[in-house]
Design a protein that fits this description.
Elements: H1 19-27, H2 33-37, H3 42-53, H4 59-66, H5 71-78, H6 80-89, H7 114-119
């Protein structure tokens, strides 16, 4: 029996693993994720990676799980999205830039025009 393909466009699709397993994965340290999913069949892991990747709060976890899958499994699970996810999972990890403090010089902005900004 072939599982229906997942898509990040279909948020109503059910999670391919039990909720308890999903909770353990969500609470796990990033370096232990691969060990936790090792016992899950690859096709299910690929579907789980796509499921998590499609949600903003589990995006990074989806990429980590995709790193445990081969490209064909991810492509079968989600087509072009699976291929993209495979490529992302093979890149070095880069922490997200949002919320990071800004560095460098600040630019002064004035509603009074450039002459007032230069005085400040």
């Amino acid at each position: 029996m072939k599982a229906p393909p997942l898509s990040v466009d279909d948020p109503a699709q059910d999670c391919p693993v039990p909720v308890e397993a999903l909770g353990r994965l969500a609470r796990a340290a990033p370096e232990t994720v691969a060990d936790l999913v090792a016992g899950i069949p690859e096709a299910t892991r690929a579907r789980l990676a796509v499921y998590l990747y499609g949600r903003s709060h589990t995006y990074e976890l989806g990429i980590r799980i995709a790193a445990t899958c081969d490209g064909q499994s991810l492509q079968r699970a989600a087509g072009l999205v699976g291929t993209t996810l495979y490529d992302l999972s093979r890149r070095p990890y880069a922490p997200p830039a949002y919320g990071a403090p800004r560095t460098g010089a600040t630019t002064r902005i004035s509603l009074g025009g450039p002459r007032l900004a230069a005085r400040g």
